[in-house]
Each structure stands twice: as structure tokens, then as C-alpha cells.
Amino acid sequence: MAAGKDFDVDRLLDRAEIIVCCGAGGVGKTTTAAALALRAAERGRNVCVLTIDPARRLAQSIGLTELDNTPREVKGIDTAAGGRLDAMMLDMKRTFDDIVITHAEPARAEAILANPFYVSLSSSFAGTQEYMAMEKLGQLKAEARWDLIVVDTPPSRSALDFLDAPQRLGRFLDGRMIRMLTAPARVGGRAYLKVFTIGLKVFTDVLNRILGTQTLRDLSLFVSSLESMFGGFRERADRTYQLLKEAGTSFIVVAVPERDALREAAYFVERLETDRMPLAGLVLNRVHSSAAPSLSVERSLAAAEALDETGDEPLAAAVLRVHADRLATAARDGRRAAQFHSAYPSVLMVSVAAQAGDVHDLDGLREIGVELSNGPEASAPRVAAK
Amino acid sequence: MSDFPAVKLHVVSGKGGTGKTTVAASLALALAAGGRQVLLTEVEARQGIAQLFDTPPLPYEERRVAVARGGGEVYALAIDPELALIEYLEQFYNLRRAGSMLKKIGAIDFATTIAPGMRDVLVTGKVMEAATRERRGGGRLYDAVVLDAPPTGRIARFLNVNNEVAALARMGPIRNQAESVMRLIQSPKTAVHIVTVLEEMPVQETTDGVAGLRETGLPVGAVIVNMVRGPLLPPDRLEEAAGGRLDRAEVARGLKSAGLDPDPAIVAALTAEAADHAGRVMLEQQERAALEALERPTYELPMIADATELGGLQELATRLHDVGMV
User: Fold this and answer.
1) How far apart are CA B171 and CA B169, in angstroms?
2) Tell me, which fold does domain B9-229+303-322 have in CATH?
3) Domains with residue ranges and CATH for chain A
4) CB-CB neighbors (< 8 A) of B268 in chain A
5) Which of B260, B287, B303 to substitute to test the interface with A, most A CBs within 10 Å?
6) pTM of the entire predicted model
């Protein structure tokens, strides 16, 4: 059981305007985001959940059958409190295409969209996805249609990537490379081969030798045609970054009681602090617990062994081993949570019990929502009523 | 006898959280056992290998990180695309200074941002160089190279560098480089192994990953099922247990005969835990069946408490040997 101050999730769900769920890959971020959004909607708020890469069956459960970049209402939620839930899945390339179309006149937009460098950049995973997720968040926020937007962050190799993406883009746009590549194109024609400076000469020579002339031409054209939109790009990236610092925004770090996931969570907590981003708390998924902690691992195993010797009670022996295994896992989970808490005592925590299988319906999400809001006590296993 | 005797380059992919790096390291140890030299590489700047072997962060340099059973050695290399480019320029064009200048003006940062396919070519190119070194060239000779590769969702794209680069560079050295990387990757000397655990999403991703590799003509190696826990309940009682229908009187009787207090609350808690466990085991059986349908050699590695320490890695390496993968 997580040692930590209670994280009052309901209070957050009733007040926040943006909740960003972040954490390492494979810790249940998408499920947590969906469960939070559903709970907020059923508590009466008008909510949109933006998911990045949901598992197929989870996506289906919230009515996301296609990747169409448009929030759609989730059917089957309890609307008694007057809330509503919309969900959408991010289409990274389409979001990027839309920015190009918005910022360039049609002929130029078309040229950009067809450029091989644009195609490579807009459909790759490195950085673009993070930036587009933030861009989409900014767009949704600007629509002012929802009380609360819950964002699931991309499955980055590092949970920090999406925070850095807008700034990385800014650095990229300010880079000398861009200026070098765009300078010749401004002069026009085949001028990119002219010698502007010694550096540029060496530079284009090298690029020509490595890439070939055609590629350099494509690159130069791409960069110069994008140049007109760069100001707009960076402004948007900066605005979204500022949005993340506003009072209505809260971050939730999601983790599981495993070494790597907690290490990632720790980086994130520190990073949010450094950037003065508001951390609401830590959700610790897949926490094991036992309803019979008084029957210790040692006694259970000793009893199981004694039963093995007689061979009369194989079921009880097996059940005792299951219990010992569970209790040992629960103890390990508890230790890891306690270690995290002692390293970051001010971070509020809530744990969610390990589920037997993946969650893929609204009822499953609802149950997780209940656990999220009740604090650590909710993690106790539900004792079978049968 | 090894199932992959002809393979020189072992690419290890898997969904995040499945223990891909641990398995790659164990595979390297297994391959090195008995006196062979193996290079373990990583490409995502995570320093996962250094963490695993408890060494300081790896530079862009081949360093010995472990000694395998029977005297082999595992070297490790964290491939940095920028340094790989500079090395590449130096080697093929004698352009080291140009490389440093490109770095200085941000060209390399730029190139890897704007065209991630380029970065993949540089990285895979370096792996290829290590895997195909010959007696006369520079550098250490390896019997095998293990690549801790990007996750399953990106693996086909990462390896299919030729396709990525073809659209960007129709000719020239980068293109040639991509083509020779492709020749190695598509040859019988390469195998792409996928690590998974017996859970729904990782298995789904494995299935999708195998389909993606097959579509792109990349050689699918083994499926390695990691962190497998042994069944604790008798197989014939699983369904009952999963449905919460275990005979509580029977459990209580057993507790009593083992000298424990058959308190109904304890019995109820134990039955509920047995139900969770049985439910999980049954789900795992379904996932196993889904993996079998892929028709690839499949190996299971047990869940061990200290898999991320050298002793644990050695244990997993021995296991990979015993099940015939190495």
C-alpha cells in the first residue's frame, strides 16, 4: 500500500481545466487518462480526452474506431449529473498537415505537403508526435468547448520528451542551419550552389557528396517554403508551453511499482518542479495488496510444505502458495512506493490495484475511477462475495 | 545446438516494459559463453546497458562490460548518431573537420530532426560496420552483434532504412550506405527477435510487429516470452478458482490440517487471491496461443527477482542456452 498523503483526485477533476498524464511507456497512462476523463464527465463536467496511441480494445470501448482527429461523444456514460465525454485519437500527420494548410497559401501548402522531407518529418515518431500532441491540445483549448481536457502523452522513450518538443522546435528554427539553407534559396534559382561563405561552401559540398544534389535541392526548397510559416510555428509552440503553466493546468505522473518506471517518474517530478509546472500527484498503477496480511509469507510457505508432505490437501497447499506470492509482491510494491515517498515527500500519491486483465469497457474504467478517488484504501482486493 | 547458427546480427525489439534490454544483454552473454566475443549495442541514448551492467554511462566507444561463462566477453557500445556521422565522414571521405564543422553549426541536429530516416541509417550503418568487420580492417572482431533496438511499434520502420532514405536521397553515398545495410538486414545473417510478456497489449504488439516485419521482408527470428511465472494452482482446478467457486470448506480443512486458523475471513481472502491468480493464468494461456499462431521459435524466460543484476542476467543467459536459442 502506498505510503503517501492522499491525492484528492475528485477535487482535481472538479476544478482542473487541463490534466496532462505523463509517465514511462507501458504504465497504463492511456487507461488512467480515460478513467479520469470518464469520472469527471460522470461528475457533471464537459470533458474531452485526447489519447495518443490507445490499445485497440480500449479505444473501441470509448467509441474510438477511427483515427480521424475529431472529438466524438462517448456513448453509454452516466449523464445524470449533466456531464458529457468526448474522445479523440491524435492523428499526428493530419495535425501537421492542418497547420501547413492554415499557414500557407494553397499552392505553397501543396508543394510542402508533397516534399519528401516534409513527408518524412511529419510521419516520423521522433519529436513530431510530442509536438503535435501539444499543438492539438492548444487547438482543443482554443475551441473553448470543454470544461476539462485530459491529455495522454505519447509513448516516448523518455517521458520528458513532450515537454522539450516545443522548445526543441524553437531551437531548431533559430538554428544557423536553417539560415544557411534558406539564404541561398532567397536569392533563387540554382543559387544554393554559390559560395556565400567558406563555411557554406564546405557545407554544401559535404551535403552534396553525402546526399546528392537532388536531395539538397529538395531540402533547401522544403526549408525555404516552410520558412514563411516558422514564425507561426514557434509562436504556437510557445503558446502551448505557456498554457501548460497556467493555473487551470495540472500534471499527473503515472507509474507502476517497478524500478524503471519509478525512476522515470522521479525525473518527471523533478523536471516539473524545475519548470514550475503544477504537479497534482502520482498515480501508481498495478499495486498489489492482500486482504490477509496477517498470514505471513513464511507461515504460508511452511504450511504449504507441511501439506505437501502428507499430500492430502493439494488445493490448500496451492492456495497458500498463491497467497505467499501475492503477499511478497505486495510487500515489494509497498517498499518501492515508500521509497519514492521518502524521496519526494511532498508528492501526493494514489494507488490503483493490479487488475487481472486489461481494461476494455466503461465499467472497467469506472471501477478504476472509483479507486483513483478513494485513495489507497480502495486498492484492497474486492473479496469475492460468492 | 543453436536454433540460429547462421545469425551474426541479433536485433532485439519488444514493447516498452517487457524487459527488452535485459533480454538483449542476456542474449549477448549467452552468445559469448565459451570464449566468444560479442558486441551489445544500443541506439536510443537511454544508457540502458550501462544501468544494467552498473557501469558509468557508455561513451561512443566499445567497452568491455562483462565476462561470460567459459571466458567469452561482452563489449557494449551506445551509438550516437552525431558521432557516427563524423566517424563515417572521416572513414569514407577523410572529412573529419567538415564533420566537426557540421556539428558546430547544428547541421547534424538539424538533419536528424528533419529527417529521422537519416539518423536510422547512421545508426544501423554503425551496427552493420561492427557486424561485418574483417580481419584487415580496424577494430575488434566479433562473433556476434546484439542490437537493443527501438520498440516493436517502430522496428520495421527503423530497419527498413532503405525505404526511408529512398524517398529522400535517390543516389549518393547515403543511399549506397542504406542499400548495404539493407542487404545485411535482409540476409540470413540477421534475425529480429521480439520480446514480450504474456499480457494482452504486448502480445498484440508482437503480432502486429511480426506482421510488419514480414510485410517489409525482414527476417523474423524468435519470440522471447519474458517474466513468465509458473502456475501455482493445480491445472484441473483453474476454472473453478477463476470463477471464485473453489470449495471454501476444502481450503479451510487444509489450513486446519496445516495447523493454521481457518478463519472464514482468511479463507475468503485466500480464495479471492486464488481467483485473481487463476484468472491471470487463464489469460496467459490465451496469449500463449496467440503467440503460437505466429509460428516462430518461442522461448520462455522465468520471472526472476534480480533479473537486472549480473547474476540474474547470467541465469537468463543459461536459460537461453538450455532452451536452444543459443
Assistant:
1) 5
2) Rossmann fold (3.40.50)
3) 9-292+324-379 (3.40.50.300)
4) 291, 383-384
5) B260
6) 0.85
